[in-house]
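In the current project phase, the collection of sequences with tokenised folds has grown. One resulting record follows, to show the layout:
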Amino acid sequence: MERNGERGFTLIELMIVVAIIAILAGILIPNFVNARAQAATSACESNLRSIATALELVYADLQTYEPNGQANFNADPADFTNAAGTVYLNNTPKDPAAVDLTQFYTIKVTEQSGGAPPSYVITCPGIHVGSTLAKLQKSGSTDGSVCGPGCTSTTITYTSGTGMQTQ
């Protein structure tokens, strides 16, 4: 029994449309995931540079990288305020790749011997995807070699005098 004037899609046509949508989703979703991971890594790098700039301002004023007299402290405005009340870091940077968003970037200041200026290391609290760290310098390398494709590192540090490195 045929109805006049009613037409619809056949099962084959519907299956082809579903297959095309599945192929497009299979191509696009991994690209969006990688873009999100890269954005988190870029935010961490930017935060590390901001904290390093604040530390250099502290050093210019106080001749030490320790605004509150502590060698180990957090990137928190309370820890970046000296005894005179000068605030060197106005906001608390957060790493979007951190498992717990209440974690701080940590700073460790090390005094050098022989009259050399002190150094510092800022550590990112997040766990980053290795592929987003491929262009960063390997930790401990002085020849400028980068982590490269298939990088297995997950942490970013900023060391005074050296810059950003993978850990």
Summary: The chain has a mean pLDDT of 88. The chain has one helix and six strands. The chain has one domain: 11-166. Residues 11-166 form one domain.
